[in-house]
Specification:
Length: 326
Amino acid sequence: MTLRIAVTGGVAALTAIGLAAVTACSSGSSSSSSSAPASTTSAAASSGASNPLGGAAASGTVVIGSANFPENELLAEVYALALQKKGVKVTTKLNIGAREVYYPQVKSGAITIIPEYNGTLLTVEADPTSTAKTTAEVDAALAAKLPSTLTVLNPAPAQDSDSITVTAATAAKFHLKSIADLKPYASGMVLGGPPEFKTRSDGIAGLKANYGLTFKSFDPLDTSGPITLSALTGGKVQAADVFTTTPQIVTDKLVSLADPKFNFAAQNVIPLIYKPALTPTISATLNEISAKLTTSALLQMDNAVITDKANYTTVAEGFLQSIGMG
């Protein structure tokens, strides 16, 4: 189980990195970037919680929400722009808060669509006992366990998940592409990560069980934040648990190793939908986005809005143009 079970996605810890050079732990909340698009909430959207037909959804308006961190706001903006281009009437309700705040709003129809992460959605809301790991397993479990008012569309290849990450120099020196490649070298390496990584089932224990890795030692740091990143780039640790859409992967030229044995459960970006409001246009549009949204593309967009302070709408529009949906 990943560290995102208390919030929605690894970049929750990155909001503060991009804005104030400090990180927020995954159990906390973080405010959105000042360059994020302004939240627009219609009166119908606000009243949806008391309307069994879904408030704004009942009046033909699609309300797209987001959690309170940059990546999720950016994905919501991508969804909103794409649907608007298809003639769908859209309002946005961004930076709502953590999952415990926005999830009930989607269930009631006050929010029509929100970008989610399939693994965390499954283990936090749908089935906390689930041991599903692969994308197919996680999505099948979601289909069986989500409430009747909710559905998900196709998952994107893009994942915001835990990863074992090394510097480009370390990857080149030892010819590392996957976690499995670490086996001959792990005994001489210090592994860094949040303190709980020492006892998590997908932490040290999982790496040993799935890949036969025994590291020289473990250095407890922070949650994919500046302490971990500094330790990795400075050589204090040679490998670390870093979220796959952390902007410093781009700026510090880090390498996230592939996880072919699914030590870390899938965390694919996936649209969560208030089912009564789903239309063929919504389904086709969002599935087209998901089909073309890769981890690399999401990482580049995160880096643009978090590190470079680019305008969210501009970045979202650029992505849609790059995949032929502009």
